[in-house]
Write a structure and sequence with these properties.
single chain, eight-stranded antiparallel beta sheet, two-stranded antiparallel ribbon, 10 strands, globular
Length: 167
């Protein structure tokens, strides 16, 4: 059961939770949604707001849901969900019913979607979206290493408007 809490009480190591444990980026509603695994992103303060950033490649099915929605969620899970997260990051929701195939239970809240099995959910209202550009890379080896197909991510910055944690 998820319970709302004040984001200022958030205490987690983003390098662990995002980079090593991974999370799901999800958007949409009861009429249609998708989710994908992320291991890139961050949290902090920007423009006087508590924000989260995430990055989505153009070919990802989830991108159309994030682009078409006011909000998206970043959903974190307790230990034991790495296989499900791996699946959600390796197949497309165009071809697979990710919740059904992983056993994750969609939970619709705040005009968007997350999952009942979560132990932390950040509901983010989009503030900014920007496609990364080749010209903006100061260190070109980062571009060369991460974008051999020139499929640069779109960066999304969302204000964290609600946070939920497991009871």
């Amino acid at each position: 059961m998820l319970k709302e809490f004040n984001i200022s009480e958030l205490t987690f190591n983003p390098f662990e939770r995002i980079g090593k444990d991974w999370c799901l980026i999800s958007a949409g509603d009861e009429n249609g949604f998708n989710t994908m695994t992320a291991s890139w992103g961050g949290v902090g303060i920007l423009w006087g707001k508590e924000v989260a950033t995430c990055y989505i490649r153009p070919q990802r099915y989830t991108k159309q849901f994030v682009d078409g929605s006011d909000c998206f969620t970043l959903t974190f899970f307790p230990d034991g969900y790495k296989k499900a997260l791996g699946f959600c990051g390796s197949v497309s929701g165009r071809d697979h019913d990710k919740p059904k195939e992983t056993g994750l239970t969609p939970l619709f809240t705040d005009g968007t979607v997350t999952f009942e099995e979560a132990n932390l959910v950040l509901v983010c209202r989009k503030l900014y979206a920007q496609e990364l550009t080749v010209d903006s890379f100061v260190n070109k080896t980062v571009f060369e290493r991460n974008y051999p197909e020139n499929d640069l991510h779109t960066m999304y910055i969302g204000e964290i408007v609600k946070a939920y944690k497991a009871d």
